[in-house]
Write a structure and sequence with these properties.
about 450 residues, alpha/beta, TIM Barrel, 15 strands, about 20% strand, binds iron/sulfur cluster
Length: about 450
């Protein structure tokens, strides 16, 4: 399975809680801009494809494409369509592929969505966040509750499936406010809803307000109660949890996100986007051993403060690092690489005809097993203990696993899968810590 993620790093204004890689017109400067972004992203696709070909990476046709941000729908719908067409021409795309874009509800209308549907989009994910105006204001959102209703209605009319995202725990949000948001989202009759606890990073505007004492910090107990309310109301409405923060009617789960959680390969396009390749898919890697010998930093990572970075058509330093880490260790599971974060610098690097990666790192089998445990314990399909034992060569201590089950955090199913309970979802870090502790590799 192969997925493509396209990051669109533009927003009208930055929401107070947001630490995503996104830029307003004011902090963009020259280089990549909304006007030429699609062309640059399409150029990057060609470079990634060339890089894959040079290394014998033969990916199957793309099964999901996800446009995230930022606000992808700040670009003209035709530009999103052109980027999607370029994905098709570069890698091919499955007939039943899932094609999603995120959208701020005040950036789309029926005509816009009609263009997306005609271009092949199948799904739209609206950043609803809340149905309560004072909560939207606290979150610095530009849309109104009415924009969400209109957006979902327009999406239905043109045949796009809608999902909505909610955020709980904003300062000043009462239990009744949250209940209203959940009920409003359910009334939209969408088939997929995500609900995330507000987390506030110190570097954000909201982080600074909390530090200054002008607004209250989100409260863990308040957020836990809100999670329970959402889970109960979604369940009553026929939406089952399938990942800690995601609920869907059967068959409407986000295939793109499930792919991430199942560790498939994906290409990330755009500033700050991450890519992921498994070593087993890199058929001819050894034929390119010479690449790894040049100009490596001691720890195998690109030194981002190095003033002179060597560029040539065969790749930049991060590419070389990725290649070296893939060759150097028989215990290699795969490699993760990430694009340069700032759009202007990313666009400059793109014009040097190399994949604009900022850095890369090797993923060992142990790290992959750890990630598999962490991700599996977030999913309703759970963690397959037999698979972990087979991959690690170590037996998991059943008595200790049963002790975790008795504490009410997990259920052990007959087919050897462990699935977090509601309490286990609320205390997921504890569950992960305890299970990792007994995995024994
Ligand atoms: S719209 Fe989304 S990406 Fe943009 S600033 Fe707000 S939270 Fe961040």
């Amino acid at each position: 399975m192969f997925e493509v993620y396209i990051h669109v790093p533009f927003c009208y204004r930055r929401c107070g809680y947001c630490d995503f890689n996104t830029y307003t017109a004011v902090d963009m400067g020259g280089g990549a801009s909304r006007g030429n972004y699609a062309n640059l992203a399409i150029d990057e696709m060609s470079l990634v494809k060339e890089w894959q070909e040079r290394h014998g990476i033969n990916e199957p046709a793309v099964s999901t494409v996800f446009f995230g941000g930022g606000t992808p729908t700040l670009l003209p719908a035709q530009d999103l369509g052109r980027m999607l067409q370029a994905v098709k021409e570069t890698w091919g795309i499955e007939n039943s592929a899932e094609i999603t874009t995120e959208a701020n509800p005040d950036t789309v209308d029926e005509r816009y969505l009609e263009t997306l549907a005609a271009a092949g989009f199948t799904r739209i994910s609206f950043g609803m966040q809340s149905a309560v105006p004072h909560v939207l204001k606290t979150l610095d959102r530009t849309h109104t509750p009415a924009n969400v209703t209109a957006g979902v209605k327009a999406a239905n009319e043109v045949g796009l499936r809608s999902s909505v995202d909610l955020i709980y725990g904003a300062p000043g949000e009462s239990m009744d406010d949250w209940r209203k948001s959940v009920e409003t989202a359910i009334e939209l009759e969408v088939n997929h809803i995500s609900a995330y606890a507000l987390t506030v990073e110190p570097i954000t505007k909201m982080g600074r307000q909390i530090k200054a004492g002008t607004i209250a910090k989100p409260d863990d107990d308040d957020e836990a109660t809100k999670y329970e309310i959402a889970d109960e109301l979604f369940k009553q409405a026929g939406l089952e949890w399938y990942e800690i923060s995601n609920w869907a009617r059967p068959g409407y789960e986000s295939r793109h996100n499930l792919g991430y959680w199942r560790n498939v390969d994906w290409a990330g396009i755009g500033p700050g986007a991450h890519s992921h390749y498994r070593t087993s898919n890199v058929g001819a890697w050894q034929e390119h051993a010479a690449f790894g010998a040049r100009d490596m930093s001691e720890d195998g990572f690109r030194k981002t403060d190095t003033p002179q970075i060597e560029h040539d058509v065969s790749g930049n330093q991060a590419e070389l690092d990725a290649e070296k880490s893939m060759q150097s260790d028989a215990n290699q599971f795969g490699v993760r690489a990430w694009d340069i974060k700032h759009p202007r610098k990313w666009a400059e690097e793109l014009h040097t005809v190399s994949v604009p990666w900022e850095g890369s790192e090797a993923i060992t089998h142990e790290e992959n097993l750890e990630e598999t445990v962490m991700l599996g314990l977030r999913l309703r399909e759970g963690l397959d203990i037999s698979r972990i034992e087979q991959a690690s060569g170590c037996a998991v201590n059943r008595a200790r696993l049963q002790a975790i089950e008795q504490s009410g955090l997990i259920e052990i199913h007959n087919d050897n899968r462990i699935v977090p309970t509601l309490r286990g979802r609320l205390l997921n870090d504890t569950v992960i810590e305890q299970v990792l502790d007994i995995c024994g590799w």
